[in-house]
Design brief:
One of its GO terms (molecular function) is glycosyltransferase activity. InterPro entries: Glyco_hydro_beta-prop_sf, Mannoside_phosphorylase. The chain is mainly beta and 398 residues long. It has a single domain, classed as Tachylectin-2, Chain A. Helices cover 3% and strands 46% of the residues. The longest helix is centred in the C-terminal third of the chain and has 9 residues, at 387-395. It is globular and about 60 Å long. It starts with 5 loop residues before the first strand and ends with a helix.
Length: 398
């Protein structure tokens, strides 16, 4: 049972029409919607909200004839490093002999025998703009004609996990683009929050969960980043910090060219149990007390782990100064929410928060934030969280 008055699923896989997918008609194989989740969130000029939803479209039968198959996009005669027109290119299937792979995870498979981990996906993700009511509790329209799908070789395995910020009257959206070339962060821009144009690759290999602050600091753009790796150096014995993945900071004059900030950002803290991995959740928004940022921490369990949402407050002039972190989770996975779609679950214990909007802008009962999350890598969850929660806890911190 949720501790919040409003906490519900507003979009599920069965709400998506595969016949209107960018993949429709391309493959000689049946696909289905594995998940509609991890929605970026922003307020549109008409007062409605936009959720940019990650749609994972998977092969119904990825294993057949002794092989496992992956979906891949490719362009016809596209020069290296260029992007195709929207809707250009084609989707195809690649087949791998079963004796070369590990298929323990239903979403992907690992290739055996290499000197490092190499995977391929049995699904491909694209982004669907879903217009919501001002309180985010009703679907107003699904804009299939504005879907964002692969356009370049650097995203041939899909486009994932949008995060949307509005800065100086323009909408900026970061996404994760997946390919054998690189696991990169790509930027899209919009003048209205609904029609998006590809801008460029802005961060290179395996830098995930890039979140652009919703506002400039001394005329510069700021962002949270999260480089991946498999080697970390130890803190001294007895340190309050744990070695491992952390949320770093970067600055930019134009939101295109980013320089790492020298001081650390959010680091795994010994008092927070779920920091075996951590990464950014919602783009930081400015409050009277500082920049409010929601992030995820992971506790190891089985294949995926337990994902929870936490929050921190950062100094408004220097976001490397962490004013407060609440070590108790703000959101956890809720089995009651997914009980009606229990038959579609393929992972559990996962809430992945990806969007936040001020609920006061169009609310008859002000005083809350609208928080958007992916639940169980399956559905979109909307939670109304009172602003007083953040004020009360941060005011009591040293």
């Amino acid at each position: 049972m949720s501790r919040y008055h409003v906490d519900r699923l507003i979009l599920r896989p069965d709400d998506i029409d595969p016949a209107r997918s960018p993949l429709a008609g391309h493959l000689d194989a049946e696909t289905y919607i594995l998940g509609a989740f991890n929605p970026g969130l922003t307020r549109l000029p008409n007062g409605n909200l936009l959720a940019m939803v990650r749609i994972a479209e998977a092969l119904r039968d990825p294993i057949r004839d002794g092989k496992v198959h992956a979906i891949r996009w490719e362009a016809d005669d596209l020069p290296a490093g260029k992007v195709a027109p929207r809707g250009g290119g084609r989707y195809r299937l690649d087949a791998w002999p079963l004796d070369l792979v590990d298929t323990a995870d239903p979403r992907k498979f690992l290739l055996r025998g290499g000197g490092w981990r190499i995977m391929a996906l049995t699904s491909l993700s694209w982004l669907l703009p879903v217009e919501l009511s001002p309180d985010a509790l009703e679907v107003v329209a699904m804009h299939y004609d504005r879907a964002i799908a692969p356009q370049g070789s650097f995203q041939c395995y899909g486009v994932e996990d949008a995060r949307i910020s509005r800065v100086s009257g323009k909408w900026l959206m970061t996404t994760c683009s997946v390919s054998p070339e690189r696991h990169s962060t790509t930027l899209y821009t919009s003048d209205n929050g609904l029609d998006w144009s590809f801008a460029d690759i802005v961060l290179d290999h395996q830098n995930k969960d890039m979140l652009i602050f919703e506002g400039l600091i001394d005329g510069h753009y700021w962002a949270q980043t999260r480089p991946l790796g498999d080697l970390y150096f130890a803190y001294p014995p007895g340190s309050e910090w744990r070695a491992g993945p952390s949320i770093n900071l970067a600055t930019s004059p134009d939101a295109r060219h980013w320089k790492p900030y020298p001081a650390p950002g959010l680091r795994p803290h010994a008092a927070t149990i779920a920091t075996a991995r951590m990464g950014g959740g919602t783009p930081p928004i400015l409050t009277d007390a500082g920049w409010l940022t929601l992030w995820h921490g992971v506790e190891p369990k089985e294949i995926v782990g337990i994902y929870r949402t936490y929050w921190s407050l950062l100094d408004r002039r220097d976001p490397s100064r962490v004013l407060h972190t609440e070590h108790a989770p703000l959101l956890e996975a809720d089995a009651e929410l997914t009980r009606p779609i229990e038959h579609q679950l393929y992972v559990r214990d996962v809430v992945f928060t990806t969007g936040i909007a001020d609920g006061d802008e169009q609310a008859s009962a002000p005083g809350h934030y609208i928080v958007a999350s992916g639940e169980a890598d399956l559905a979109c969850r909307i939670t109304h969280i009172p602003k007083a929660h953040f004020r009360d806890v941060s005011a009591s911190s040293p």
